[in-house]
Here is the input.
Amino acid sequence: MNAVLQYAVQGLAAGSFYALAALGLAIIFGVLGVVNFAHGAFYMLGAVTAAVLLDTLGLTLWWSLLAVPVLMFVFGVVVERLFVQWLLRLDPLYNFLLTFGLTLVLVELVKQKYGVSGLPYKPPGILQGRAELAGVVLPRYQLFVFLFSVAICVLVWLLMTRTRVGMIVRASTEKPELTRALGVNVGRWVTPVFGFGVALAGLAGVLAAPFRAITADMGNNFAIILFAVVVIGGLGSIVGAVVAGFLVGLVEAFGQAYAPTFAQILIFVLMALIILVRPAGLFGREEATR
Amino acid sequence: MKSMHIRAGAAAMTGALLLGACGGGPGASGGDFTGGKLVLAVLNDQSGVYKDASGPGSVKAVKMAVADYKKKYGDAAVVDDIEVTSADHQNKPDIANTKAQELYERKGADIILDVPTSSAALAVATQAKNHHKLFIDVSAATTQLTGARCNKYTFQWAYDTYMLANGTGTTVTENGDKNWQLIYPDYEFGQDMTKSFTKAIKGAGGTVQGAIPTPFPNDNFATFLTKAGSTKPDVIGTMQAGGDLINMVKQFNASGLKEKGIDLAVGLMLITDIHSLGVDQFAGTMFTDPWYWNMDKETRAWADRFQHETGTRPSFEHAGNYSAALQYLEAVQRAKTDKADAVVGELAGKKTNDVFLHNGEIRAKDHLVIHDTYLARVKKPSQVKEDWDYEDIVTTIPAAKAFPTAEESGCSM
Here is the structure.
């Protein structure tokens, strides 16, 4: 029982990274219709930026959690203005290829600048060590990652449901034509939404910095699983992305515990099964796939 | 009369063409060197995961060996024109295979050096055998290179999986950590290492409670670690390398296993790994090292030169490439030719010492280079006196005990 609980928390902690990043991916896809292949690279940039800020300016994790998303938002806006916007009217494949190319460029630039063996990162002392909860001993950092990402997901959810901006974003995610027909200027929100999605990927990267290897390649494998998450949750579904993120984390953890050889394959088996039963994903609507 | 001239001319031309196709006769400098020069090629990872550990630094190290050779022999050198070239194999066996052909056939390489990634090194070994040219492996660890798939033209210079497993597995078990859990990436290197470790641990009287395969690459080891810790082993042995090793160590440190008295032993670790993760994260970790830059005055002096050239301290792979190139050049000097068979004859069986090889012997029977190796422990941050000062040498493992015997390696040429 103890072990099962431990695996569950580890799964939820791993799922936190997926949920945060997938949330950004889903929002971008919803509003812009862009399958942002560079999301893994933005996650990597978030972690690398946190490491560089710690090394050069001595900014600790707490400050990075604030500063990096802001920097990544600006970076996202620049990328959207410079590149993505010109391809929005064309077939989605063009932006998919663009972001794929962007990934290669970003990964290579980081390799040139910081090498391939990775950057060091020291988490704040308070997050080191273990906490005991109901007889289960858990690393504090994993608990923190889980609680923090749940808080962010709730915040984003409030933003989406309680504010005018959020409602517009949701409306244009789910029924873009209808939203336009009602006189809402969807185009105005395209750039900030892209920046926001990139910021969320960067935030996931900052959270990963103390716990994972900070290398130029860290986003490559991550991006692939991220796409499985979004497909499982339903393309364009914001709730779906979050739920599927945690679900995939749990599948990964229990897979690692009981069938280690198949841990990663299990995620894709789950994806295949869900597509088979619900082609639009867990929370996707049929029309979203059309 | 005229037609005879033409015929003679044609014959001469044909002869010249044939000679050209065969790689030419005696070279311009008059010595017995193909094309009048000696070409050393470094084939390794210039852009991927092994770039920092070997990569461009190894090319520099080979150039340092050439400079030292020229300085030592001056006018007495049997060859003046020595070229060092390099190519990127991106750790892919198919690319390594084509690059090796290109280097041997078109770039006139007399020797290929380095070649990390076992599958890529095995491909190059086959090309060396087919072309009758030399290949000295420095960075690839598979025992097959000088074992089941050995050949006359292939040498293994720095280390192999047997030596890593034997050093760490045996010594750590003998020091009291009897019960092991192994975690390994599920591909050739990981499986090979796990076999070697299991053998070494059992040989030293320990037990392996479990061996857990993981995906490769992988960034989440939390659950694997919990599972490994559940049987309460004395030590967890990880065969992860590069970025995966860093993921593993960060998550091991967060898991609390260390505080429960469970040690971490690492199958393959390079000084670049310690440098990138920070010495505090690795403190106390045990591993086998073929060479360390700060072992003695001589290694330190060489490391100073290397740092002057590249800006970083050398890994054992850098030093290994320097040593391999230097001993090759010495063998060429003795053979007075670049003809592979003559140079192999000079290398095989040679006992030697240099900055990398301590009590070294280029074993004639399987072309495995045996030398003293070291069990190292990562220092505590408080013990570190300067940048890159990361390792304490715990024990020296003498050459004869560090590597498999010629009978064990199972090579027949």
Q: What stands out?
A: The CA atoms of residues 158 and 166 of chain A lie 8 Å apart. DSSP finds eleven helices and two strands in chain A.
